[in-house]
Design brief:
The chain is of the alpha+beta class. It has a domain at 7-63. It is 36% helix and 12% strand. It has 3 helices and 3 strands, in the order βααββα. It has a 3-stranded antiparallel sheet. A hairpin with a 2-residue loop joins β2 (37-40) and β3 (43-47). It is extended and about 60 Å long.
């Protein structure tokens, strides 16, 4: 029975790709991450080969300096300042 695609559940996906569930969901919705599929009505899985391919593509983009990096937040636009612990 060789040639069958190996699938992974959410727990194993989190070990491979340390992103929040909401981030993965949004990336799937935008077509930037491999799509999950229902194995049963209550069991969602991802194709391991697709996830590994996506991860390798991300590594390649980073090595080439073409990865999208979020800009640093403009701290001047903050409405409140963080409170330091122990200060009164």
């Amino acid at each position: 029975m060789t040639g069958l695609p190996r699938t992974i559940r959410r727990h194993e996906l989190r070990l491979i790709v340390p992103l929040a569930d909401s981030t993965i969901f949004e990336m799937e919705r935008r077509g930037e991450f491999p799509r999950r599929f229902n194995l049963t009505p209550r069991c969602v899985v991802w194709d391991l080969e697709e996830v590994e391919t996506w991860l390798e593509e991300r590594r390649k983009l980073c090595r080439e300096g073409r990865a999208k990096i979020a800009p640093a937040p403009d701290l001047r636009l903050r409405k409140t300042r963080p409170v330091k612990r122990g200060s009164k």
